């Protein structure tokens, strides 16, 4: 009886994490997202991290410098967290045909796989996430949606063994003239 109960709980956990949404569903949506154009130059990201219960645990601002060489989009992301932690992540995203992307970054386990259609981009990957004094292998399902006026919304679901752990919500915008870098703004507020 206990074995059947455990199998049922595992099946429910896996199915609860499954979504039927596909990037292809957004093929006709506008404005059209062109990653290499959107992230070329400077972009700013504002984000929150919520635990599985919806409690905001951390917040951040990230300055992103993007360069496109014709095949690879390089994103240098400088994070400033609300607890004072500063972090840098560098993504290399290679275009794979008309709709596909493959990404790599230092803490990812293997390459990420992405698809872009219309105004939507979906990328999934495994990641060695900082957790306490160590690291924990988790899975990311990462969605981006371009909105009017150049606002790009990002929602990433973090899971382990199919069980939802956290959600990261990010709003991107092209950096305006005269805006102080995130690190300088944080230092001025202290």
Automatic annotation (TrEMBL):
Residues 1-21 form the signal peptide. Keywords: Signal. This is DUF3833 domain-containing protein.
